[in-house]
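Please fill in the sequence for the structure shown.

STRUCTURE ENCODING:
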């Protein structure tokens, strides 16, 4: 505009697994739904943030939980991927047993502060497949440093990208006192 143009126009070319993102079932399940076909309700509503003590490269198991599950969405703060600008392959991930246990307690979405719910080198993707079996949704790459443990309202809507296997999200947590909207239908 400094040179006389009437507007500025940006473009983006990147993977849909960039930063904080929601995986679609089609990312790991042949013939499963793409991100434009998933229900949005799992991505909005009551949420619990939990700090778990796990080492780099470890999977989070049910015995790592530090509090009872109190919300249908659970976000884990591991601290094992401390700087998204500097890649490390030894981040923590979820165990399939944890996914199954969370599902049994009514959890519809699980998220964490690492790039994947499975270890970096995994080809079997056991936790991704546990999500597919249970119908749960996931968020990966969340920035949770400095977020206290507790209950919040999560808003992390994926974009409606036709046929895509994931979508970036702008994940926000509202203090329950700030907004207590109804559970989406």
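FILLED IN BY: designer on duty
SEQUENCE:
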């Amino acid at each position: 505009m400094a040179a006389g143009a009437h507007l500025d126009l940006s473009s983006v070319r990147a993977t849909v697994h960039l930063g904080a993102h929601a995986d679609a079932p089609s990312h790991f399940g042949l013939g499963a739904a793409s991100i434009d076909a998933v229900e949005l309700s799992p991505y909005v509503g009551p949420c619990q943030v939990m700090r778990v003590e796990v080492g780099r490269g470890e999977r989070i198991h049910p015995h790592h939980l530090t509090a009872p599950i109190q919300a249908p969405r659970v976000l884990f703060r591991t601290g094992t991927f401390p700087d998204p600008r500097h890649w490390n392959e030894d981040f923590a991930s979820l165990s399939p047993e944890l996914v199954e246990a969370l599902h049994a307690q009514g959890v519809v979405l699980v998220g964490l502060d690492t790039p994947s719910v499975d270890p970096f080198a995994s080809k079997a993707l056991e936790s991704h497949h546990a999500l597919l079996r249970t119908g749960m949704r996931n968020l990966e790459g969340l920035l949770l440093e400095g977020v206290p443990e507790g209950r919040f309202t999560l808003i992390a809507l994926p974009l409606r990208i036709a046929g895509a296997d994931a979508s970036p999200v702008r994940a926000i947590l509202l203090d329950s006192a700030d907004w207590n909207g109804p559970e989406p239908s």
